[in-house]
Design brief:
The complex is a heterodimer of chains A (503) and B (643). With 503 residues, chain A is mainly α. In chain A, 73% of the residues lie in helices and 3% in strands. Classes of the chains: A mainly alpha (503), B mainly alpha (643).
Chain lengths: 503, 643
């Protein structure tokens, strides 16, 4: 019952928002409902047993039984934190958008809750068709978020974003249908259950690019790689981020990109173990290129939001590098880095939004000397920067260290390349920090005379994120132990992966 | 009090000091901030003394106080506890860090009294102390790395403390990024050790590494040590990564004394002393370290001879002295390395604080050409500076003599040493004596060259007391390591305390060659050469200032190269940084915009071309659509099952 509540309650919240008689109530009610939802999601801490590598709290109901398609949801150590991440960030985003979103407030909050349903649904779905529906459904509210509340080139950005991801997902749909039929052939009944897909014996021939497993592997991999996004299919991301309103950017970077990496962990690695291993080098290579490429391009961005967007390409490159190292260090680091990226990049987008609201400029060259007039903002920005560049005792270090360790075990050369990202990360972030915060007061500060520093509301938005940066950096065990059993199971039994279910 | 509690207090005191001052970072109350920070540091110092006393009270084989707080990272076989150990090596380190650190905190109260944000300054200083203690106390390499990056972070924050000046902000960034280059090497070094030997705890590594000397360049220990040396070269300012340290002088002077002279920059030396039982198995790595250290010592000393900024001279001097320490590490003279680390901490902290006192007294003037004759105005600063000067140029019986002489002797006599290494070290000693005497002459002696409106004054007691204490240590600090040949003839036969103390925990190389006569002779040579160089500098900068100018002219191109720091920064910018930025802009434009997006549009055009064909199929009849869907499914199935 809990998981269905987590998925579908936000639809009711959206209805409540739609029916509110007074526009002034929308923001507080929306914030209250999102907090309530986060509170409900913490019930997972009591009901989920981290010692077992099983699918827990499973719910199943017939949907299209003829085709073996069911409403089938469950949670394990891999999806656990991604669900919490979604419910945790939503209230922060809603509070963060308090003053930034001024028109069509009602529709905006409805979009946020629709988005929440689709995100949680994606992470909890155990039926591939159900997964696909949520995965695709998430595009619609995001499409509106960017298209309605976005910047001047929002139509171009939304089209690009939509077409890229749709194109990828179509491959996935084809592959899912193929797997359903394959299930009928091998298991006797049609089944769209991901857990049944794990049992399939999908023929693989090394060296032959047109064998079944390789084709299906790439069909999924392309869909997820676009979502991550991996180099070279990342170019939709900077445009989407630059045009998206702050809440859109935060959710997009913090949660929606994780649908891609999550897809690799849930589908690609366990369903296609041979192909994953055979092509691991390719994905590690693309991950390593993404790390360096994203960092270099981020370095020369004149627009701070685009810089953060390209830094996402770099950070998600680390995640992919870790996942395809196919060992426990890489997988653990990869999962941790997903959460880290959600927190640090989410925080960076929120911070960029705060200052944009005041000055209406995102050009780095317009700034300078901001630390003097906005000291608290500067401190928070620096802390988030340190998390982003993986300074020890922040969350970023634990993830990055484990990923590099895992990558080193798998491929020393690529790990060596990826380690250069440690240097370049510091370069692009600190260079931006220097130009924005230090030196003499720049153009916008000379023109702008309002209060530049954070207000109380903004501090409340950032406080939980800053707290988590240190908590996850100093006590990573508090977080990792919830996922340990599932990750160990995934790595140890990848070639004959099975998941048992529990109510 | 048990030792775990002592270690906890030792670490937490500066952390709490940081929190206290950090939360009230806007406060302008420098006395309160300074008092709290100094108290925190002093508490740590008292804990260090107590821990050291416990070590002393124990028999040699039990001098190992370990404690583990909790398991920090535990994944697969990787188990990283927050574990700390006080033994002979870290015992000395914590005494230096907290002892010298407390004096510098005290000094800062006076030095930062006119600053707008003293609380922020002291918060950072305490945070630095905390990280430095993590670095030396960690019982495994990852905890050391936490402190290692942490001190780099504090260094970044403190160099850029006056961030409104873009040069200072740039210097901070340069320091962090250069350190990060080193850290990348450190990370790889750790990975090699972890995957070869299965642990990153120092004790495990020393036990697990097979005791066979590697003869190739590609053995795991050799490779790991070389990568770790990249890390050490970043943190401890060795060629080719030393370039950040001179720029780091943009920070407040107490920071230069604490971080960029006495403690943080010696972290690389500490790391290799800690790993010495492993390092001795990698003679090739030792050779690289020895020669890099020797080259750094000489190059930095020659640059130091031509600088005019009092802090820059001391900065290059620090780079040079760190070079000596790595020379010692490279020839297997680990005791000498740590010994010189200690004496250098005393006399260089003294001279940096002295220069701070001068800068403070001269109202922020740093150019030695605008000083001169300050002896009259600042007697205490001058007197203590003299002690530091005698120590660094290696005059007996001052501290630097014993440690530097030990390094030179080992560079000559160790099986890993050579006459060439000794020669580089000796020439460096001559240069050192020259530039330090030049500094003394230009700053304190001779005629005053500042304007009538400048009224230099001696600093207050919070600044002079640390100078006096460090001055005393610069005299007696070296007596802990009196060489055997000297001990034999001295009354009471004083033992080489530091060598006896450290010998159970450091790697031992085979005994060196060379007799007592040679040792005495080399000692005499280096001391008298240094003395001569000092006289020469005194002659040409105090007695006949024209001589110095003429010499600079006579050695035109050489002098210019030195004065311009051999154009290394320019080279880095021209050969690495600017091309990297240009390349990045190019790939952004050509790959992202031109190539990938173009390709997408082409694909899009293809699709829309296809669509116009498909239009003809759109008949509007539902049954036709159903047919197409069925056909599509058939195709999909066919593809999927065609195996």
């Amino acid at each position: 019952m809990l998981l269905s509540l987590l998925i579908f309650l936000p639809l009711w919240y959206a209805l409540v928002i739609a029916l509110l008689p007074d526009n002034r109530w929308i923001r507080p009610v929306s914030l209250g409902l999102s907090l309530l939802h986060f509170f409900i999601s913490t019930a997972l801490f009591y009901q989920f047993d981290p010692s077992k590598p099983t699918m827990q709290l499973v719910e199943k109901a017939a949907w299209l039984p003829t085709f073996g398609i069911n409403y089938f949801v469950g949670v394990d150590g891999i999806s656990f934190w991604l669900v919490i991440l979604s419910t945790f960030l939503t209230p922060l985003v809603i509070l963060g958008s308090w003053t930034a979103i001024q028109d069509r407030v009602r529709s905006f909050h409805i979009c946020m809750f629709l988005l929440l349903t689709s995100m949680i649904g994606t992470f909890l779905a155990l039926d591939s068709i159900l997964f696909y529906v949520f995965f695709e459904a998430s595009l619609i509210p995001m499409y509106f978020l960017v298209g309605v509340w976005g910047g001047p080139r929002r139509l171009y950005a939304t089209m690009k974003f939509f077409i890229y991801t749709m194109a990828g997902s179509l491959f996935m749909l084809v592959a899912i249908i193929a797997l359903i039929f394959m299930a009928e052939e091998q298991l006797g009944v049609m089944s769209a259950s991901i857990l049944d897909f794990y049992k399939l014996d999908i023929p693989f021939v090394a060296g032959d690019w047109l064998n079944t497993q390789t084709l299906l592997f790439f069909a999924f991999a392309v869909a997820f790689a676009i979502k991550v996004p991996m180099f070279p299919v990342h170019t939709w991301l900077p445009d989407a981020h630059v045009e998206a309103p702050t809440p859109g950017s935060v959710i997009l970077a913090a949660v929606m990109l994780k649908m891609g990496t999550y897809g690799f962990m849930r589908f690609v690695l366990p369903i296609f173990p041979e192909a994953s291993e055979y092509f691991a080098w390719l994905f590690m290579l693309l991950g390593a290129i993404g790390i360096i490429y994203g960092a270099l391009v981020a370095m020369v961005q004149p627009d701070i939001k685009k810089l953060v967007a390209y830094s996402s390409v770099s950070h998600m490159g680390y995640v992919m590098l870790g996942l395809f190292a196919l060992n426990i260090y890489g997988a653990t680091g990869g999962l941790y880095q997903m959460l880290n990226h959600g927190i640090s990049t989410g925080a960076l987008f929120l911070l960029v939004g705060m200052i944009y609201e005041r000055t209406h400029s995102r050009m780095i060259a317009d700034y300078g000397g901001l630390a003097k007039v906005a000291p608290i903002y500067a401190i928070v920005f620096l802390i988030v920067t340190f998390s982003s560049i993986a300074v020890p005792l922040t969350n970023g270090f634990v993830g990055e260290f484990l990923i590099l360790l895992g990558a080193f075990a798998a491929d020393k050369i690529l790990a060596g390349v990826a380690v250069l990202g440690v240097i370049l990360g510091a370069v692009y972030m600190l260079w931006a920090v220097k130009r924005i915060f230090f030196g003499q007061e720049g153009k916008v500060l000379a023109e702008h005379h309002g209060d530049m520093d954070m207000g109380a509301r903004e501090m409340i938005v950032m406080a939980p994120l800053v707290l988590l940066i240190f908590w996850m950096g100093i006590f990573p065990g508090d977080f990792l132990h919830w996922s340990k059993a599932s990750l160990d199971h995934l790595i140890d039994n990848r070639t004959h992966y099975e998941l048992n279910v529990e109510e | 009090m048990n030792h775990a509690l002592l270690i906890l207090t030792l670490l937490l005191a500066p952390l709490l000091g940081f929190v206290f001052n950090g939360l009230r970072f806007r406060s302008a109350n420098g006395v309160l901030a300074g008092a709290v920070a100094t108290a925190a540091s002093t508490i740590s110092f008292l804990c260090s003394i107590a821990l050291y006393a416990i070590l002393l009270s124990r028999p040699e084989e039990e001098r190992h106080l370990a404690t583990r707080f909790y398991e920090w990272i535990s994944v697969g076989n990787l188990k990283i506890p927050f574990g700390f150990v006080v033994d002979q090596i870290s015992g000395i380190m914590i005494l230096i860090i907290t002892g010298v650190g407390s004096l510098i905190h005290l000094f800062s109260i006076g030095y930062m009294s006119h600053d707008e944000r003293p609380a922020k300054f002291f918060a950072y200083l305490n945070l630095f102390l905390f990280n430095m203690l993590l670095l030396v106390l960690g019982d495994n390499m990852v905890v050391t790395f936490v402190g290692w990056e942490g001190v780099g972070l504090c260094s970044y924050l403190l160099i850029g403390f006056w961030f409104s000046d873009p040069d200072k902000a740039s210097a901070g960034m340069k320091a962090f990024v250069t350190n990060r280059i080193g850290d990348a090497g450190f990370i790889i070094g750790m990975f090699i050790l972890f995957f070869t030997f299965g642990s990153l705890s120092y004790a495990d590594l020393i036990e697990l590494v097979p005791k066979t000397v590697e003869t190739t360049w590609f053995g795991p220990v050799t490779l790991a040590c070389l990568f770790l040396f990249i890390g050490a070269a970043g943190k401890s300012a060795q060629i080719p990564l030393y370039v950040w340290l001179p720029d780091a002088m943009a920070g407040p002077t107490p920071v230069s004394a604490l971080i960029h002279a006495a403690t943080m920059v010696t972290a690389g030396v500490y790391l290799f002393v800690r790993l010495s039982p492993i390092l001795i198995l990698a003679p090739h790595a030792m050779e690289v370290i020895a020669w890099t250290g020797a080259a750094t010592a000489l190059v930095a000393a020659t640059i130091g001879m031509t600088q005019w900024d009092i802090k820059k001279i001391l900065a290059y001097s620090t780079v040079s002295q760190l070079g000596y320490m790595f020379l010692a590490v490279g020839v297997g003279a680990f005791t000498a390395a740590l010994f010189h680390l200690m004496t250098h901490a005393f006399f260089k902290a003294l001279m940096f604080l002295g220069s701070g006192s001068v800068i403070h007294g001269m109202h922020e003037e740093q150019d030695v050409r605008k000083m001169g004759g300050l002896r009259k105005y600042m007697p205490i600063t001058h007197a203590t500076f003299v002690l530091g000067w005698l120590a660094i140029i290696g005059m007996p019986p001052f501290a630097g003599f014993f440690s530097k002489d030990e390094i030179l002797w080992q560079a000559y006599s160790s099986p890993h040493g050579s006459k060439a290494l000794w020669l580089v070290g000796a020439v460096t000693a001559v240069c050192t004596a020259f530039y330090m005497t030049r500094l003394m002459a230009l700053t304190f002696w001779g005629k005053s060259r500042f304007g009538r409106d400048v009224h230099p004054h001696e600093s207050g007691p919070t600044m002079t007391i640390p100078l006096i204490v460090l001055g005393i240590l610069s005299i007696i600090g070296g007596w802990a390591g009196i060489p055997h040949v000297m001990g034999e003839i001295l009354p009471g036969h004083p033992p080489n305390l530091i060598q006896n103390w450290l010998s159970p925990v450091i790697g031992k190389v085979e005994a060196g060659h060379g007799s007592a006569v040679v040792e005495w002779a080399l000692m005499a040579v280096s001391v008298s050469l240094a003395g001569l160089a000092a006289v020469l500098a005194y002659y040409s900068y105090v007695m006949h200032p024209k001589v110095a100018e003429a010499a600079a002219k006579a050695f035109g191109p050489v002098h210019r190269a030195m004065a311009n720091k051999y154009y290394v920064d320019e080279f880095y910018f021209g050969a690495i940084i600017n091309p990297l930025v240009r390349t990045s802009k190019a790939i952004w434009y050509y790959v992202d915009v031109k190539l990938i997006d173009k390709a997408t549009y082409v694909a899009g055009d293809l699709v829309s071309g296809l669509a116009s064909f498909v239009k003809t199929v759109q008949s509007g009849k539902t049954q036709n659509y159903a047919l197409y869907m069925a056909m599509g499914l058939v195709v999909i199935i066919a593809v999927a099952l065609a195996s």
